[in-house]
Structure formats: C-alpha cells, structure tokens
C-alpha cells in the first residue's frame, strides 16, 4: 500500500495520514473513471451490499457498512436508524427507530413510511433487479407485486406505527437481517416524488450528494452537495469533495493510463471498477511513486471447479476427490496474474474472519498437485488406465473462468492420467449454460461472491438443497441436498450474535468440503490506482475496493 492506505492486510483505522500525504479537507472536484456504467440508478433496482459505492453517496439506508480499513470494515453500523436493529426472541421480528433530524435534499423530513414505500416499490416487476432476500424473507413477500398493483394496501409484514418506528415480520429466523438492511432497497423514497421507471433520472437524495445529471442510463453522472444532509446524523460518510463526476464506458487500459499519468482533472480521479492487470502491475510496481498510489483489497469471492454429480464420471466421489488432489493451484494463480492478484484457496469460505474462515485442506494437493494420490483414487474408482473428461469454461481471456485457467488445469490433470478436453463458451452462452439445472455440464469453472461479509450468503445459495432451482438460475451446481447441512444453515441463521455464528459457518464449510462437490482454486486480490492528488483511501474487507465516501482531493 505504500503511503496510500492502511490496507486490509494491516487492518489499520482511518486517519489523517491514511491517504496521500497531508490532512484531507473539504472542497474540490473528484472524478470517477469507470468501465461499467452505473445503470438503473434507482434504489429499488440496484443489487448492492452495504449501500454500494457511488449509490451510497445518494441513498442512505437503515444500516450501512462500517467505513473502516480491513476487518473493521466488515461490521454493520447504524445509518438512518439509531441502532442495527432490535430482534424479538427468535429473530423473526426486527424493529428500527429513525434518528432525529433526517431530511431529504429539499429539506422535507424522512419518515418510516418512506422506507416502507421504498421497499414495497422494489417488488414491482418494472423495477426488478435488486437482491431477492426481501421477497424470500418477509411474510407475504413471495406473493406481493408492489404498490402500483396493491390498491394502496401495502405489505402488511412491514409496520410503521409512527413516523420514526418500523417493524419487519419475517417468515423464519434471520439473525443477519442487519446486513440485509444495508441494501439500497431500504433507502427512503417519498411516494409523492415517485415517477416509476423515470425515478432514476433524479432520485430524491437522503445522502450527502444529490444527482444533478444522469446521461445515457448512468454513463455520465454528476453529483453535487445535498445542502440538507447533516453530518450530525451521518458519522460514516465524510463527503469531502464539492462535486463528483462519474464517467463510464471507458476502456480499462485507458482508465489505468489516465490514473497513472494523473494529468489535469485525472490527478483527482479514482476508479470504482477497474483493476490493474498483470502487465500494468509490473510497470507500476517498478515505479516507487506509482506503487505508492496502488490500493490493495480483498473481497469475499472464491473461484472454483464445480461438478455436476448427475453426470458421469462425476457421480463417483473418488473421481471428484482425485481431481481435487491433482489440481495445481500455483499454475491456476499464475494464470490470472500471479500471487499479487490471487491467493490459493483450499476452503470455500474466503480467508476473512467475518466469513467464519476456518483453515482446512481435505485433499492436500500441495503447491503443484499430488498426481500420485490422484492416480490411487482413480484406480479405486475403476479408472486405473485414466479417463477423459470435458472442462467447460468461459472464452473471456484473462478472466478467472477463462481459457488460461482451464489450460493450467488441463496440464495438471494430465499428470494424474486425466485427459481434459476444453469447451469454451462465449459470455452469455457460458452464463446461461452453467446456471441452468437442465443444461449444466459435468465439469466447469465457477465463482461466487457474498452479498455481505458472512458465511450465510456464501454457503446457502451454493449448498442449501432447498435453493436448488430446476427452472431458472440455479447456483447449487452440485445439487447438494443434505438434510444435516440444510438444518445447520437454519440453526446458524437463528443466531443474532454474528461473532458466535462465524465459527459455525466455518465448521459447516469443512463438513460440506468433505463431499467434494466443488474444488476451491483461488480468491482474487484487487489492485487499483488512484490519482496523485487523492487522499484518505479507505479499503474495507466488505468491498475490497476504495470507499468513495471517504475520499478527499484537497
């Protein structure tokens, strides 16, 4: 990290010196150079955790992520609410109270009725795109179709007994509801200002900035200060710059070139979506001044081999175990840029404590694979002379599911007597194929990232048998439906003490790992440049990237 930040590796706290040299001050203009446009800038349609990055400048939520470096940044803290929520005895009812003095950009008060309405409109078909949890968790959520069709009835499972109190009734115990309350669907929306699909053009701000321009569906966003935002009610967002100009649709190489050169407005520029690639990183690290402007982050994500046990020979656990022993994680890591950009993984859960990370290596392959053990298991499985399999991967070059990683695995498995034929698919075709229960191949590359830093949204979608989707997007690729696993997921979800829940997620990870329905390969490491005038870089283990709400340019 050099002088840029106390990164996730240090877990250092925010301080005046945690950015470029000098104390951060208010004022100036921050530029954001991005590859992907900030489309669907409507809190109902955004699929973000912790409030998102750019969205979090405009939308406040009941709770939010703690804006601290490293592990401290994985915690939930109050935002619009006075606390992170008060559960009943079995965590099926959650109550929140709003802070005093909350207002919109026009000075009008924020009420719990606005939060209830904001959530309800996220159920409307024309505003789809957000996370599915509210539909699954709220009583009556599965049948609700949103306020435009409910005849004014609203969702009965959300109660607002007064302007400052809101109560949620859930189908089942959910100890992690405070994490869900960080999603932008919990941002308040005044009903009188809701104009449906056009709301994204000028959403009413509850945060430190308001939208003054939104061109080409989020390709160019201009944010200016919200004069009615109060620092007294918002201790998380620093809101140093006067204006923030977000331009998207830029080539990633161009973004890194502009940040490196830091000429004119680019000296006060950041990116929220573009990493340094292997070649760019090599150039940057050889220049001390540039290296001091690189932020390092870890987001909870795992790239892995997935098996479909309904396809032979992967119905045989010994075949799956043999492949687990045969993989060469060093070559897989090198295929995505080396140890600066990826860390080898033997657990499905990422390495951060918040997820419940518990070290285990059930099928020790060492750094370069254990071909001898793999051959032994293949013989036991009836394949003493080896076997031939097909590995499906994405054709996106340089990516974690791309041909480079596939080729590295092909070479490693060959040493164990496994001939691997490669089947590359283009983007949409690949995504549609591996996420379809009907079309899923037997052996393919996959990845998963958590919606918030906990073992729950990491393990449940992939291994809870009740989440297998036969007609639609299915993420339980191994079709695991183990009653003991399902039961333990339910038991952990009852816990509101997340510190106590974490090690149980870790133990469950190991239990699931014994079935070898996936082979973890590596976790990504993010390396991103900032402009030379950027100060106060904060990178949490929740997002793994620079927190734009903390950045100063003066």
From TrEMBL:
UniProt feature, compositional bias: Low complexity: 13-22
Domain of life: Bacteria
Residue ranges of every copy of the Solute-binding protein family domain listed in the record: 75-466
InterPro entries attached to this UniProt entry: Peptide/Ni-bd, SBP_5, SBP_5_dom
Listed Pfam families: SBP_bac_5 (PF00496)
Region of interest called Disordered, as start-end residue ranges on this chain: 1-30
Record-linked Gene3D superfamilies: Dipeptide-binding Protein, Domain 3 (3.10.105.10), Periplasmic binding protein-like II (3.40.190.10)
PANTHER family per UniProt: ABC TRANSPORTER SUBSTRATE-BINDING PROTEIN (PTHR30290:SF83), PERIPLASMIC BINDING COMPONENT OF ABC TRANSPORTER (PTHR30290)
Name of this chain's protein: ABC transporter substrate-binding protein
